[in-house]
Amino acid sequence: MQRRFFTKINNYSFIAGTIFLCLPILMYNGSHFHRPPRTEKKLELFRGIVYQRLVESNPRPAIIHIVTIDLMTPGIKPFVTPDIEKLPKNLAVSSQAIIDNETRARTTSEFVQEFQVQLAINGSYFYPFREITPWSYYPHSGNNTKVSGQTISNSKIYSSKKSGRYVLCFSNNNQAQIPGSEECPKNTIQGLAGNELLVFQGKPKTNSSANFQKDKPYSRVVAATDKEGKKLWLVLVDGKQPLYSEGFTKSELAKFLTKLGVYTAINLDGGGSTTLVVANPEKQGSPRILNAPIHTKIPMRERPVANHLGFYIDKF
């Protein structure tokens, strides 16, 4: 009788252990059906904002998402995630040393909902960060994080410049600028940092840094401008998903951006952070994810990140 009891316990333990070990596979197989199809698409999301999805097969499967924004269209306004502290109004940008304030981690969909922007991508590199299993990672939504590189929200600098973190800056006349430096000019209203220049003044950037030397196909997020700063491109490449989209190398992406006609481009946080979200007026509170994020190796799972770049569109 005792042996039969322990046999049942062992059988239950085996079944439970098998389900536990197979859970990531089950989650992956279920969620990959919700990814955008591998078909090309182009549409106007809002007045002055056009979305395009491109599909590549060579040298490997890749899906590229391009958002082209005419910054001179009335009503379009950029917005960067604020720090945890309440933002003072009209605080002048200063180059003085500042304390790096924390932000509260959010997914891109949560950012769209909370701040009521109509379009958003994930932003800068951040810390602390870890990703071990689908249930063991940091940050979760609501956890405190810090941004790497200069960050400005509503004219307030809350994260200082850092070596090798190049900035994207929006001035008070709504023009965008990637100055090729680690610090935005004084008239900056919104600004955030990437880690490398991919294109500078119309030419692909050759880089001998360790990051470029370890160039491999990966999920990518890029912000790029034209020469006048009146047009902004947001380019996201899905990656880490065999047979669906395996990503671009930085060199491949630099060549692609040059053909696209950008003047200067910076590389933002990619990998599992790569996310593009748009508000859905027909379903309030339910933004649409336009790409295929892959956080903790689970397709369509969004990663909570430290900051975002969003856009308000009046009368959308």
Structural description of this entry:
The chain is α+β, with helices and mostly antiparallel strands. The protein is built from 4 helices and 25 strands. It has helices at 2-31, 108-115, 210-213, 250-260; strands at residues 41-46, 49-56, 62-70, 76-80, 103-104, 119-122, 126-127, 130-133, 136-138, 144-147, 151-153, 156-159, 167-171, 176-177, 188-193, 196-200, 203-204, 220-225, 231-237, 264-268, 276-278, 288-289, 294-295, 298-299, 308-313. The strands form 7 sheets. Strands 1-2-3-19-18-20-16-17 form an 8-stranded antiparallel beta sheet. Strands 4-25-6-21-22 form a 5-stranded antiparallel beta sheet, covered by helices on one side. It has a 3-stranded antiparallel beta sheet with strand order 5-10-7, with no helix packed on it. The longest helix has 30 residues, at 2-31. The N and C termini lie far apart (71 Å). It holds the Pfam family NAGPA. Keywords: Glycosidase, Hydrolase, Membrane, Transmembrane, Transmembrane helix. GO terms for molecular function: hydrolase activity, acting on glycosyl bonds. The chain crosses the membrane at residues 12-30. InterPro entries: NAGPA.
